[in-house]
Amino acid sequence: MNLIDVQNLHFSYPEGIELLKGIDLAFDHRSTAIIGQNGAGKTTFVKLLKGLLKPVSGDILINGVNTKEISVAKLAAHIGLVFQNPGDQIFKSSVYDEVIFGPHNIGIPEDEADESTKKALIEVGLENKVNDNPYDLSFSERKLISIASILAMNTQIVLLDEPTIAQDDYGKQLIQGLVRKLEGEGRLVISILHDMDFVAETFTRTLVFQNGKVTMDNDTKSVFSQTEAVRRAYLEPPHVTQLGNRLGYTETYLTAEQFVKDSLRKREEFKQ
Amino acid sequence: MQNISLYVNKKSFVHDVDFLTKLIYIFVFIAIPIISGSVIIGLLAILISLILHTCAGVLKKLIPIVALSLFVLLSVIIVQAAFIPGYHIVFFSLGPVHFYQEGLIHASLIIVRFLDILLVSSLTVLTTRPSDIVETLQRKGLSHRMGYVINSIFQIIPQMVSSMKTISDAQRSRGMETEGNLFVRVKAFLPLIGPVVISSLVGTRERAMALEARAFSADAKRTYFHEEMKYRYKTPVRIILLLLLVVSIIWRVL
Ligand SMILES: Nc1ncnc2c1ncn2[C@@H]1O[C@H](COP(=O)(O)OP(=O)(O)OP(=O)(O)O)[C@@H](O)[C@H]1O
Ligand SMILES: [Mg+2]
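Predict the joint structure of the above. Result:
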């Protein structure tokens, strides 16, 4: 069974234009990036998956359960969402309380909840800020708190809305590690991103949202190999991909390592 | 974000009238029926206000306002007509309760005045942009600090509502039940209060800094974002309104 099934999904906000115009998707455990220009409806889509918004028509099944037939709170044990803006998510006055809030609500026993809270804080590198007030921390740290508060719930599905916002290289590496680790554990990570280099290096599958539809859906390499189509969606392909294209390489490069390795090999071949 | 102000953004000659002229209209149209003491004049004032509501395209918005006040009106009738001692002529009876004619006449006078006040003020509220009200007052010498406070009052409630929705989304996203029967809702509401107050305090601090960063407390002469509303017929309309008032006073005295 698919972890998530989206069937003929239509959505518009009250008094708004139709934002999602018939989306059909199935998600297995492959880590998936959602990209698309500002206002394409990406955030709206993940809020629909989370059950915070309900389809105007069509259905969303999470582990076979229709989001229309279950409360958001009950669904929370299966699917976690890290909000685009951490300010929309954080409301407790200590980092520890904030992170353990979810595990308590979904009925994880106290010692287990404490353990997974501490583990999640170590995973995002905030183990030294356990007793700080989140309001006193920086934006990037608050984003990491909101990620930890979802990790601590150990949900099968993790939705991330622009996790790399305001993160330096250290933060991005850390998030990349988390996505890979979750994918390795057979858990589904779906993440919205604007950083194409990060998408290329991190995600197995990529979806492009445009004009209320999913216009591209394939493994990340295939998506970025269609440079023209990517540009038509007002997106810029990853920098290494562009570099490879400009140099006339036929291969689509997603990481600098791969690009360098191939270039060196080509140089050797040329010398001989 | 929804707005608590009842202002309806439309184009009509009523919308074009400036706030001060509307204030004079409120005063005159409330004063005349009271001075005249006549139900007919009161009804006439109501009729005119109704016509103006129609012209402004805000008649529909009036329905819930009047409907809400029906409860008040009904209790006025019952108390005035049935429970004030000293009346004699029974108009009709409902079981053991007698409704007296004098009481009903008195009640109708009160109701007409009440409706008149309601309609006259609702016309102004429905057709004047809150920020225009504040800017008019500031041009007439209200301090910009007070102006800011008044503007904030129009914003604070929708802001609270939207921050409550945000926090409740954050809570149910992480497994706290907020949907269901009344008990569940109340239980979910209580823990909301702390975060909503804190987030509005934090917001206030940030806003104060944002305002200062843009010289809120500077002493320089201020300019305004909206142009001052220049209502073409403001002088004749104001004169006519005041004349009406004078006439009704003279008519009453004679
Ligand atoms: N609560 C709301 N009510 C009405 N319209 C909304 C609401 N939230 C978002 N919108 C509108 O829906 C459209 C899509 O918004 P959404 O946040 O889903 O886009 P997005 O793809 O996440 O964009 P971004 O990359 O900028 O985050 C936007 O035009 C936005 O203004
Ligand atoms: Mg978004």
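The CA atoms of residues 5 and 26 of chain A lie 5 Å apart.
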